Amino acid sequence: MGTETIIPAVDPMPLPAPFWLFKLLLVLTFILHIVVMNFMFGGGIITAITGFFRKKNENNQRLFNDISPKLPSLLAATITLGIAPLLFVQVLYGQFFYTSSILMAWPWFLVLILLVLAYYGFYIVSFKQDKTSQGIGWVMLLSVFFIFLVGFFYSNNFTLMNAPSTWSEKYFQDPSGWNLNWGEKTLIPRFLHFLVGSIAVGSFLFIFTGLFRWKKETDYARFLITRGGKWFMYATMVQFLIGIWFLISLPREEMLLFMGGNMLATISLLIGIIGGLAAIFIMSNGIRKEDPRKPVSIAMGIIGIVVIFMAIMRDILRTASLSPYYKASELAVNTQFDVLILFLVLFVIGVLVWLLMIKKYFFSPSARIAE
Question: Which residues contact 64 (CB under 8 A, 6 or more apart)?
Fold first, then answer.
C-alpha cells in the first residue's frame, strides 16, 4: 500500500485566514505554551528534588513551600495555552495529526487521566499544611512523573505524525491502538531535548521569584536566584550534548538544513548555540556578584530569544518531514476579515490580561501564594 493512499484527504474547506498568519500564530502560541510548561514541569522537577533535602537547609524548605503551591496554576495555564497551538496544528496538518493519534489512541487517551492525577497530586501538596513530611515529597515526585509520561506521549505522537511511511506497518502489526513510535531514531533525543530544556527554563521560576522578593528578603532572594542559576547552567550544558545527539539522529537531508541547506534553520541553530553559551557565561558571573539581578536578567533575556528560534527550528523540521507528502502553504484560502480582525484584537487583549494575571498571582508581594 503506497503512502499516498493511507494519508487522509485534505479538508476541502478553505482556510479562513492567510496561511502565513496561521503559521505565525502556531509558532507564537507554541512559544507561550512551552514557556509556561517549562515553568511547571522543570520547576516541578527542581522542587520535587529539593523537597528531599528540606531537613538539611531551611531555605530548601522555604523554596518547597513557596513553589509547590504555584504548580497547580501553572499546570492549568500549560493546558489552556496548549489548546491554541494544538488547534492550529489540526488546521494545517489535521490529516497527519489525527492519523497518528488514532495509531496510538490508548496512550493518547491516557493523557487526560495522567493530567488529572497530576492535578490531584499538585493540589494535595499545595493544600497540605505540614509540608515537612517525606510523603509529600513523594507525592510531588509522582505528579511530576505523570507529566513526564504526558510529555513522552506527546513526543511519540508528533514524531509519528511526521512519518506517514511507517503508519501501515505499525497499524497492521498492532491495530489495538497501543502503538508508540519506538522505531523512530529521533524520539528519545527529541524528548530529552524538551525534558532538559524544561529544567533549564523552569529554573527561571525560582529566579523570577527571587527578583520579586529582593527588596524585602534579600538573603532568601539571593538563595533563590543562585539556586535557579545553577540549575540553569548545568541543564544547559547537558542540553548541548543532547542537542548534538538530536541533530545527528535526523535523516541526512533534514540535518543538512541546519548546516547551510536552509538559511533560517542555520541561523536559528547558530543563535541557539551562541545564545546558550553566552547565557551560561553571563549567569555564571552574575550569581557570584553581591547583586546578581542585572546579569541574570540579561541571561534570561538571551534564553528568551533562543526559545523563539528553537520554536522556529521545530516548525522548519516538521515542514521538511512532511514536504514529500504535503505542503500546507498550498491550501486554499478564503479570508474572513471580520472574524479575523475580531480574533486578533481579542488575542492581543487575552495575552496582555494573561501576563498581568501571572504577575499579580505569582509574583506580587501581597499575593497569598507568595507569603
Answer: 47, 50, 51, 54, 131, 137
